[in-house]
Specification:
By secondary structure, the protein is α/β, with parallel strands linked by helices. The protein is built from 11 helices and 10 strands.
């Protein structure tokens, strides 16, 4: 059996009883970073089960080597051996490696289970207070400017709430990008969920960008962007214009006309 086990995103007590039992008993653990995973398992043993003493092998499987590792696996080994996959924190396969291992199990008829557990997505979405029966989870935006801005414009045009992940190094940039495209859009922003320095903000994009300029940005970030308002009648708003496949100059003119802002400001924002 192959288990995909979510691990705490901060607070060790967030691990489920079932996940704890399996994680401390399987002989083989595939993981993003062996150092992080060994430390986690040792902490869990110390906190919850000091009697656990099974010998365990840790095998690195991350975004840089997962194709090679999976190609070298033998399906028959998993028919008599229990193994687990864990990412550094949170749920495997959700903006983390693990998908290729799932595909390997499916292709070879290997029984597997994905356990429910810790993640930053659902707590942030629930805590946002944004109404809506559905949502869009995007994870991390691309690093390259053109692709990043294209995807961000598409996200801002959605009427459902959207959830993004962002790193310490790009959270301020992201807040400024959202503010440039949709200054009044409300964003619920969290960092370091379940940890000592857990922080929450609920501001419009313009206020958020200004607030983060003087904030401690260290940690992992989750942003919930409120969905675009559904338009009535024939009135256009910036959310209608942003996803259109128009040259930046034409799009800037339209945006300036419906918002009252300067054409150059919009042109500069669209080309960031």
């Amino acid at each position: 059996m192959l288990y995909f086990i979510p691990t705490p995103i901060g607070n060790l007590e967030d691990i489920t009883i079932r996940s704890l039992r399996l994680l401390l008993s399987v002989p083989l653990i595939f993981c993003e970073d062996t150092r992080v995973s060994k430390k986690l398992v040792n902490l869990l043993k110390e906190r919850f089960d000091k009697s656990a003493n099974i010998k365990q092998k840790f095998v690195p499987l991350h975004s840089h080597n997962e194709h090679e590792v999976v190609q070298n696996l033998k399906a028959e080994d998993f028919l008599t051996l229990d193994a687990a996959y864990i990412s550094d924190a949170g749920t495997p396969c959700i903006s983390d490696p693990g998908v290729l291992l799932v595909q390997f199990a499916q292709k070879n008829g290997i029984p597997y289970e994905v356990l429910p557990g810790a993640n930053a997505l659902l707590p942030s979405l629930a805590a946002s207070g944004f109404e809506g029966t559905g949502f869009y989870f995007h994870g991390f935006l691309p690093h390259k400017k053109e692709a990043r801005m294209r995807e961000l414009r598409e996200i801002l045009s959605l009427e459902c709430n959207s959830v993004l992940y962002e790193s310490t190094h790009r959270i301020l940039q992201l807040s400024r990008e959202i503010a440039a495209l949709c200054a009044q859009r409300v964003v619920y922003c969290t960092k370091e969920l379940t940890k000592m320095y857990e922080t929450h903000y609920k501001l419009n994009a313009s206020e958020l960008a200004k607030t983060l300029e003087n904030a401690n940005l260290n940690g992992e970030w989750t942003l919930v962007i409120k969905g675009a308002e559904k338009q009535k009648g024939e009135y256009l708003c910036e959310e209608d214009i942003l996803p259109l496949p128009l040259p930046p100059k034409q799009k800037a003119k339209l945006l300036a006309k419906i918002t009252g802002k300067n054409i150059k400001e919009w042109y500069d924002a669209l080309n960031k």
